[in-house]
Automatic annotation (TrEMBL), chains A, D:
It comes from Fusicatenibacter faecihominis. CDD domains: TM_PBP1_transp_AraH_like. Pfam families: BPD_transp_2. This is Beta-methylgalactoside transporter. One of its GO terms (molecular function) is transmembrane transporter activity. The lineage of its organism: Bacteria, Bacillati, Bacillota, Clostridia, Lachnospirales. It is a multi-pass membrane protein.
UniProtKB/TrEMBL annotation, chain B:
Part of an ABC transporter complex involved in carbohydrate import. Could be involved in ribose, galactose and/or methyl galactoside import. Responsible for energy coupling to the transport system. It comes from Fusicatenibacter faecihominis. Pfam families: ABC_tran (PF00005). This is Ribose/galactose/methyl galactoside import ATP-binding protein. Residues 6-245, 260-502 form the ABC transporter domain. It is found in: Cell inner membrane; Cell membrane. Gene3D superfamilies: P-loop containing nucleotide triphosphate hydrolases. It is a peripheral membrane protein. It comes from the Bacteria. GO terms for molecular function: ABC-type carbohydrate transporter activity; ATP binding; ATP hydrolysis activity. Belongs to the ABC transporter superfamily. GO terms for biological process: monosaccharide transmembrane transport. InterPro entries: AAA+_ATPase, ABC_carbohydrate_import_ATPase, ABC_transporter-like_ATP-bd, ABC_transporter-like_CS, P-loop_NTPase.
Length: 328, 502, 348, 328
């Protein structure tokens, strides 16, 4: 085997997913004229925004070798709480008919706090009662859904005040607020992951929980914070999605956790814990959103899109995982 | 000032089915190294884990400087000035050396109103402590990229960096090279001069004689006694640990090797950084030693033979026939067995019973009608191995994770004995094993050889290598550097001269 | 409450007749193949369906696509997207359609409450819009009218389907139904996806129709079956084993669930039409067969032909410069043993 | 602490879930008359039957420290394939209009083989390309769904031949065939788990995959068999569910994997691998089905049922996990 061949293989292994996506973008750009328009690229960025917030939240859980199946239902709860608090006075189907629409920041705060509370409960069961994250977050997923059903009585919400929908339609420096929010969350998350003690504890717990415990890391407290923080981020994402869709219902966000976990993994967050960066989440989310848009532009049959998505996950992770496989 | 820096009194600790500690005591004088001795499973690690707050003891008291204290978790232990180098490595492989060193106590600085980790200070301090322990790798290096020995050195640096008043070393040298051991002893001498009280656990008698001031001996979870190091000879220590006297550690060989049974030719790893062009042969009834410094790639070569590591080229002949080995199952078909060096990583099945741990490699042999497992037969074999190897356990249903390290090793030996291979590769077979058990393992090796089985033994312990082998190959840096055919040529000097031919 | 009354008005006997008429009209229209308009051949159509796996919407979209082609659109210019029952996903798809520059959008919204935002976006982009199957609120429809936007809704009123279900039962008369003789109609309700208006209205209006007919009702059990046959089977099996012979009527929000319920009813040794009554909605082929053979008391035909054709025509109208009304109604059709043969004929 | 107190606590920890369920059964039995009727108990056993087959399939995956998110969609595929092959000749919406209904055993065989094939593909990616089971089975979940959508075009299937629906309605020795099938599957699975080499290998892989490799266990082959076998069982479950409901659609089985995983865990299968028995799956499935029936009998609001389910999972696992936590 000569050197050249090997390095080509290495490139494929390390950047395989990205290369595939770039090829797809080029192909789609050539065959359907508007794909590479500024308009459509903004669209893709907008679509990425809330997905990124979710992925960054879930990434924290995965890095501790956990996961969070409750993400989707938390998004729904966040979106619905925001929806009930931010309806126009004159909307005929108003949820709280006589309540003035709340200040949007206050509403956001409430959404994030409520979600964080549920997240903290999940974290408590994981940390103190040794319930595996998969099971614990699954249980919370059911509970949050039930609560949201009871709260909204399964009524779809709409008729939002313009300051709320304005979060999606408004722009600053030509860029949608949604994108700014996602950027801000990414920067804060980067800071937490890399610059704070909490971030390092997170990696330690994922890398080797016994070692972390023995080294004096407050494992339990850290876990609770991680799940609470993640839940707050799902709440934020629900808030963003509601603004963008101009409405919300209990189904909002359903199943998003799967895509977020897949996105993180594709980007390089290891489900066995201890490894993963903010950039991993960004790459993974970009892959998914670009793929979805490209498939639609190419006119691929919706049913076949599921298959394409599944195949991409297989291929992407097969290529990627080999980076970490010991040279055997 | 109290006479003792630290006292543990009347310590009791039970696990389901095992009384691991029964009224044990330990008293550390400041500025001394206190050796804690005992067979595998005597309860040494358990006692130290109780001290460090990892286990909650059932009864007993701990006094620090004469004050009674209660220690509920490692964090509290560290706050009391106690540090520990753990027997089972505790690394976080995907993080840097510096982070591993400062985990749980990162230096912080203010970033506006927020406290952030002071990376600069962390890296500088890490570099300082690494230099203290005579190590000079990059604090930013990924811990997982280091060798096991280097990781152990990081653990030592970490314990030292706590500037603790009490430092516990639980078998710190089991994977250190001689140079690294020397460095450790220098550090311990420094600490002694600074008045630090140390607990030192090791199964290597020569180390005990060199470093210990006091010796406490335990047997079966009970306290035997405490002596000054000069009061006891090595034989005394062994007798008190084992409860009987052992005359010759390396038992007499009963046979002479016969014809060549296996030949390995020009074996080269798929990785450029790994072993190149290694050839050797093995005779029937032979105990073949593989010497070299830690990191010489002996393990990789033998794992290559066994089908775990990918090869670029090379041939293996067993009984004159060429065999293709791509998977351990192929190796087993060719009559080869392997006891790996990394017991916890790729040896034991922690959550399975002793029976399942022994049985796993032999199921092919004990099938009824080609499908149903013969549980009765398997049970008998496991039972007899437990007796033969004197594995300390309530019964064969016990989870292997609950056994002491040494007993786990015996279970793995039992696995391969049950598989009955013609060729058994044993990688560091006595690492972490007490003298009594070591002797037993050596006897088993000799018996196997006498039955016409052939053994390849990788050992970093010079005495063992010279004491047990019929013939020795020495590797250095992934290459075969020499063969010592004659028993009388087998000297430490000769082995070392080959082992350092980089 | 006004709204409720209005709905009840719509669903009088007269309306039933009108509905049957509409069905026959649709049938007539069916036979008369539309003329393909060549101007439409290069127009791009974006279609958003709330969820592909939905049985009824599958019939709807298949027919819609065929009919669009008949009207002159070319197949490769029609893109149909699966909203996966998620408004956010659907909104992204709508954005992509806008970016892609489609000429007309046909949208089956996931959440009708999001209609305002969707309409704003689409109107801003200057694209005519046809909503189908799920009706945006009155406020919203009023806006289209006021601003004269090219936006319309084509569909049925779900309240009507519920009322028809109730009427099928009430028409039998108390004596026939009240097997346990407590003077009440004791029923079990199996609901569809609870956030779907169709499910809500069917649950509410089927019972309301009974009460309006002067019958007393007793709800023994009300469970959510999420439109799913296997789930409904299990729920009804549990109900029957709890309430036994007291169960007199099983209402299912759709036919798939009614078919599951039928399995449990038969397994419990009960006979529809003799000691228990069963109604669904949708007029799935198998349900019609069961109505014909008496294994189901009745169902309600959710006329995907008229609806999809009307939607396709509305879309074509916008592109050819013809205006549309802002509300294009269709009617459900009550199906019982009496008229089941007609409906079966129509669906062949 | 005196002996007595300790043993009460021990009983709670070891049998906590079962005790809670027994109390619930007694309470429900007293308050709603027919709950403890033979009729209703048969009914619960019927409901358990297909769930048990699923849980036993997924248990094998969990014991190897994996999981299987594709179960639900495989059930849907199995149910739909069976549906298309077993329709009456005179059913007007017949999927294959001119095809004679197949022999039901042949149809079952086809269903199980097709599912097993997809399962083997999942297993291949897990075994040979190191794709984590969570991700691999998630990808397969999407693919199988897409394929089923394309295959059936989301047409609901019905009009089954009576020999097919007879599997649910027919009885042998007074017990439904469905229950017999579940029993048979449980016995076979017990045999495989405990009496065969393959079963032991499964536990070994879950206990320590590296060690298994070194001990000569054919890890890759075993993993592929486990995922293929599990998929065949999901196919069987889909077949059973179709017979019971008298119809099938692409949504059949959706989300069942979560409940199956939760059931296994409640019964004592450890998500970290290496631990779990056939009885664990039986207990877990029984807990869920009894709970669902009891909540319905007690007239608990549908929305609140979600919350109850979530809470039970939390409580059950919190109690259970402590069996394995070393007392510190
Ligand atoms: N977590 C545990 N659960 C059950 N039993 C345990 C556990 N940890 C240790 N034991 C038992 O306690 C006894 C003492 O074990 P310990 O590890 O302290 O021995 P040791 O003296 O350190 O031996 P070695 O020299 O092999 O390290 C052994 O019998 C062991 O089986
Ligand atoms: N190519 C390599 N790159 C980085 N590290 C390596 C490489 N090859 C070996 N090492 C490290 O060196 C260490 C020793 O290698 P190996 O186990 O082959 O040597 P050995 O002589 O058998 O040592 P031991 O006596 O511990 O068995 C291993 O821990 C391994 O991580
Ligand atoms: O929205 C989904 C629902 O739509 C209804 O119109 C139909 O009757 C139901 O069967 C279900 O398909
Ligand atoms: Mg020890
Ligand atoms: Mg009555």
């Amino acid at each position: 085997m000569d050197k050249k061949k090997l390095s080509f293989k290495d490139i494929m292994i390390n950047y395989g997913v990205i290369i595939i996506v770039v090829l797809l973008v080029i192909y789609t750009g050539i065959t359907s004229k508007n794909f590479l328009s500024v308009n459509n690229l903004t669209n893709i960025l907008m679509n990425m925004s809330s997905r990124l917030v979710i992925a960054l939240g879930i990434a924290g859980c995965i890095i501790t070798a956990g996961c969070d199946l409750s993400a989707g239902r938390m998004i729904g709860l966040g979106g619905c709480i925001a929806g009930t608090l931010l309806q126009k006075m004159d909307y005929s189907q108003k949820f709280f008919p006589n309540m003035k629409p709340m200040n949007i920041f206050l509403a956001l705060l409430i959404v994030m706090l409520v979600c964080a509370l549920f997240g903290a409960v999940t974290g408590f069961f994981i940390a103190y009662l040794n319930v595996p994250p998969f099971i614990s977050t699954m249980a919370m997923m059911e509970i949050v859904y039930g609560i949201n059903m009871i709260y909204t009585n399964a009524t779809p919400l709409g008729g939002y005040v313009s300051s709320y929908t304005g979060i999606a339609s408004g722009r600053f420096l030509g860029i949608s607020y949604l994108i700014w929010i996602a950027l801000l969350v990414a920067v804060i998350t980067w800071f937490i992951f890399n610059m704070t003690r909490h971030g390092k504890y997170m990696y330690a717990i994922g890398g080797n929980p016994q070692a972390a415990e023995v080294a004096g890391v407050p494992v339990k407290k850290t876990l609770i914070i991680i799940y609470a923080k993640a839940a707050a981020m799902y709440g934020l994402a629900g808030f963003m999605l509601g603004a963008k869709a101009g409405g919300a219902s209990v189904q909002l966000g359903y199943g998003y956790e799967m895509e977020a976990i897949a996105a993180c993994t594709i980007g390089g967050v290891s489900v066995s814990g201890g490894r993963g960066k903010v950039s991993s989440a960004i790459i993974g989310v970009a892959v998914f959103e670009i793929l979805k848009a490209a498939l639609q532009f190419l006119g691929v049959n919706s049913n076949a899109q599921w298959i394409a998505l599944g195949i991409i996950i297989f291929v992407a992770i097969s290529l990627d995982i080999r980076k970490y496989v010991a040279r055997k | 000032m109290a006479e003792f820096k630290l006292e543990m009194k009347g310590i009791c600790k039970s696990f389901p089915g095992v009384k691991a500690l029964d009224n044990v005591q330990l008293s550390l004088r400041p500025g001394t190294v206190h050796a804690l001795m005992g067979e595998n499973g005597a309860g040494k690690s358990t006692l130290m884990k109780c001290l460090f707050g990892i286990y909650k003891m059932d009864a007993g008291e701990i006094y620090l400087d004469g004050q009674k204290v209660s220690i509920n978790n490692p964090d509290e232990a560290m706050k009391y000035g106690i540090a520990m180098v753990h027997q089972e490595l505790q690394p976080i492989p995907a993080r840097s050396v510096a982070e591993n060193l400062y985990e749980g106590r990162f230096p912080l600085k203010s970033f506006g109103p927020i406290k952030v980790v002071d990376h600069k200070k962390m890296y500088e301090d890490t570099a300082y402590w690494l230099k203290e322990v005579k190590m000079d790798f990059d604090p930013k290096a990924m811990l997982g990229d280091l060798s096991i020995g280097q990781m152990q050195s990081v653990e030592i640096a970490k314990a030292v960096s706590h500037q603790a008043k009490v430092v516990i070393f639980d078998e710190p040298t089991s994977s250190l090279s001689d140079n690294e051991v020397e460095a450790l002893f220098r550090i311990m001498n420094d600490l002694r001069d600074k008045g630090v009280a140390m607990v030192y656990i090791s199964h290597k008698m020569d180390e005990i004689k060199r470093i210990a001031d006091d010796i406490t001996i335990m047997r079966d979870g009970t306290y035997v006694g405490t002596w000054s190091a000069d009061e006891l000879s090595t034989d005394d220590i062994i007798a008190k640990m084992v409860g009987r006297t052992l005359t010759n550690v390396y038992p007499e060989r009963k046979n002479t090797p016969g014809e060549v049974i296996m030949e390995v030719k020009h074996m080269t790893s798929i990785s450029d950084k790994s072993f190149q062009d290694v050839s050797f042969n093995l005779r029937k009834g032979e105990i073949l030693g593989f010497g070299g410094l830690v990191g010489a790639q002996r393990t990789e070569v033998l794992e290559g033979v066994f089908g775990i590591r990918a090869l670029k080229s090379g041939e293996v002949y067993v009984k004159g026939k060429k065999v293709t080995i791509k998977h351990p199952a192929d190796a087993m078909k060719a009559g080869i067995g392997l006891i790996t060096e990394d017991r916890r990583g790729n040896g034991i099945f922690g959550c399975l019973s002793i029976k399942d741990n022994v049985g796993v490699s032999t199921y092919n042999k004990y099938l009824k009608a080609g499908i149903v497992l013969d549980h009765k037969k398997i049970g008998e074999i496991v039972d007899s191995s437990i007796k033969k190897l004197r594995i300390k356990t309530p019964n064969m249903k016990e989870h292997i994770a609950n056994l002491s390290g040494g007993n786990q090793q015996k279970v793995i030996i039992a696995r391969w004995l049950a598989n009955d291979p013609d060729i058994l590769i044993m990688d560091e077979p006595t690492r972490g094993i007490d003298v009594g058990a070591k002797h037993e393992i050596y006897e088993i090796m000799n018996d196997l050889a006498a039955q016409g089985k052939s053994i390849i033994m990788v050992s970093s312990e010079m005495a063992e290598l010279l004491g047990m082998s019929d013939r020795v190959y020495v590797m250095c840096d992934g290459k075969m550097r020499g063969e010592i055919k004659d028993k009388k040529d087998m000297t430490q000097a000769k082995v070392m001269s080959y082992a350092t031919q980089f | 409450d006004e709204e409720t009354e209005a709905a009840t008005e719509v669903t009088t006997e007269a309306a039933t007749e009108a509905a049957t008429e509409a069905a026959t009209e649709a049938a007539a229209e069916e036979n008369a193949e539309p003329v393909a308009n060549p101007d439409l051949a290069d127009k791009k159509v974006g279609v958003c369906i709330y969820q592909f796996s939905d049985n009824f919407m599958t019939l709807f979209r298949t027919e819609l696509e065929d009919y669009l082609v008949k009207l002159g659109f070319s197949k490769e210019n029609i893109t149909i997207q699966d909203g996966q029952n998620d408004q956010a996903t659907q909104s992204n798809q709508i954005d992509a359609f806008i970016a892609d520059g489609v000429d007309v959008l046909i949208i089956n919204p996931v959440n009708t409450s999001s209609a305002e935002t969707i309409t704003d976006k689409v109107v801003d982009a200057g694209i005519p819009l046809v909503y189908i199957n799920r009706e945006p609120g009155e406020d919203e429809e009023a806006r289209w009218d006021e601003n004269g936007w090219d936006v319309t809704y084509v569909g049925c009123d779900a309240r009507q389907s519920g009322t028809f279900q109730g009427e099928i039962i009430s028409d039998l008369g108390l004596d026939a139904i009240d097997k346990n003789g407590n003077g009440k109609i004791d029923y079990v309700m199996i609901e569809g996806d609870p956030e779907n208006v169709d499910a809500k209205y069917r649950t509410e209006f089927s019972i309301k129709a009974l009460e309006d007919a002067g019958l007393e009702v007793e709800c023994l059990d009300d469970q959510v079956g999420n439109w799913d046959q296997a789930t409904a089977q299990q729920l009804v099996a549990n109900s029957l084993s709890q309430y036994g012979d007291d169960v007199e009527v099983v209402f299912c929000n759709n036919d798939a669930m009614a078919l599951g319920a039928l399995q449990s009813i038969e397994a419990a040794g009960r006979t529809v039409g003799e000691d228990i009554y069963l109604v669904g909605v949708d007029a799935l082929t198998e349900a019609l067969d069961n109505v014909a053979s008496g294994k189901m008391t009745g169902t309600v035909f959710n006329d995907h032909f008229s609806q999809s054709h009307a939607a396709a025509i509305a879309a074509a109208n916008y592109l050819t410069g013809t205006e549309n009304e802002h509300y294009i109604g269709c009617d459900y059709v009550k199906v019982t043993a009496d008229n089941v043969a007609d409906i079966q004929e129509k669906l062949k």
